[in-house]
Amino acid sequence: MGTEATSATQEPKTGLQFILIHGSWHHGGHWKQVQQVLEGRGHRVYAPTLLGNEPNSERINYPLKEIVQLLQEDIVSRDLTDIVLAGHSSGGYIVQQLAQLQPQRVQKVIFINAFVLQEGENLLGFITEEPPTAENNYSFHRLAPFDWFRNEFANTVDEETAKAIYASLVPQGGQPHSERQNLRTFFELPVSKAYIFLNKDPIFAGLGMQNWHPQFSTRLGEYKLVEMGGDHEALLTNPTVLAEKLIEASSDLN
């Protein structure tokens, strides 16, 4: 499924099976350093690239249903089970959709400064201020200006590192972010839930709104909160600690 970070070895199953879902402007390869740490701890990792986010591919505005359906088929074809399904940022609502489609395969969902949407909501409803020069529909088909990204996404690293991360991002279609979500069954699922709060992420503070926690975390009902020092790009700016926090968030499964 596009660019991905995944293990190819056919060894007896050990540890936990993580599936890592990226957010906007990212692809599966951005999880590489997190994956390496998790695998070094004895876990299995699959980090797919969502349809429409493949590097160097044509930018097509795919609908949410098509993106989730292809991901679901991919996971079924790989026969992945007992999944710890983790989503970052806009990957949160992808986790929600996938979990309610394949509840028998998912044992835990983890949200990493991620949107947790309710029935009928969309992501755009939480964006009250657009990045400078972005089009009115916030389509994501071109990247926000570097200065905005630097201040809001990669604010814990030096400018050279932030530029390297920015250069690796991919434009994408924004249609899924505007679609009203059908999440009738997600909150009824008997799966364990956790929220990893990156406490140096200023995005919502800059919009005059509640931070990721408690704005979205508390929507999960009963959940485990894990906090770490990290900006929004922690998968690239603090990957070792993020991997360790994923393990900590899943400690009830060991």
TrEMBL record:
Coiled-coil segments: none
Source organism, top-level taxon: Eukaryota
InterPro entries according to UniProt: AB_hydrolase_1, AB_hydrolase_fold, Sec-Metab_Biosynth_Hydrolase
Domain AB hydrolase-1 residue range list: 19-244
One Pfam family in the UniProt entry: Abhydrolase_6
Protein name: AB hydrolase-1 domain-containing protein
Lineage: Eukaryota, Viridiplantae, Streptophyta, Embryophyta, Marchantiophyta
